[in-house]
Amino acid sequence: MKRGWDKVPPLAKARRRKAKNGSFAALLAGGVLIGGGLGWFGPDVARRFSQRDAIAPVARDSLSAQFGFCHTGGGTNCVVDGDTFWFQGQKVRMMDIDAPETHPPRCPEEAALGAQATQRLQALMNAGPFSLETGDRDTDRYGRALRVVTRGGKSIGEKLVAEGLAREWDGARHPWC
């Protein structure tokens, strides 16, 4: 015979048990006090549960410029290809993606997809304020700054991947042809 308690979903049961004995709340409060705030649980948890970020996620995006194209040589605030651009005199390689090569492309398909990725990156960079986040390495072997470009806490590179104009960077180049 089923009682009313048995009809409650398992997650709700767990929540009731935690609320009933209070040990989870005590553990959480102790962790916050000992660990110096939510940072004790790591940067991802702190970012997800930060009230400031929940209210205004775009507030940290303080960089902006009007980007043109610069397919060869240096430039100021211009897009080189689908994963590389110049910003304030510094060449930046988006470290979380790999886009098709445009100079030189290895086949006509790569050239066409690379041109689309380049145009889309320019449009995304011109769409509003953004942030440049560092990772485990500051520069690549060519001296380009390695950064993840974000807007509102979301990677612009991931948007290019979702649109089929790039792929996630896995540490190695793979052919587009």
Quick rundown:
With 177 residues, this protein is α+β, with helices and mostly antiparallel strands.
- CATH architecture grouping of the largest domain: Beta Barrel
Number of strands: 9
Strand content is 15-25%
Task: Spell the H/E element sequence.
Answer: HHHHEEEEEHEEEHE
Globally, the shape reads globular
Number of helices: 6
Could you walk me through the main structural features you see in this protein, from its secondary elements to its overall organization?
By secondary structure, the chain is an alpha+beta fold. The chain has two domains: 4-49, no CATH class; 68-168, OB fold (Dihydrolipoamide Acetyltransferase, E2P) (Beta Barrel). Helices cover 35% and strands 18% of the residues. The chain has helices at 10-21, 23-35, 43-49, 51-55, 108-125, 156-162; strands spanning 68-69, 78-81, 84-87, 90-94, 97-98, 131-133, 145-151, 154-155, 167-168. The strands form two sheets. Strands 1, 2, 3, 4, 6, 7 and 8 form a seven-stranded mixed sheet that branches. The longest helix is centred in the middle third of the chain and has 18 residues, at 108-125. The radius of gyration is 23 Å and the shape is globular. The termini are far apart.
Short key terms for the protein model shown above:
177 residues; alpha+beta; OB fold (Dihydrolipoamide Acetyltransferase, E2P); 2 domains; seven-stranded mixed beta sheet; two-stranded antiparallel ribbon; 6 helices; globular; disordered N terminus
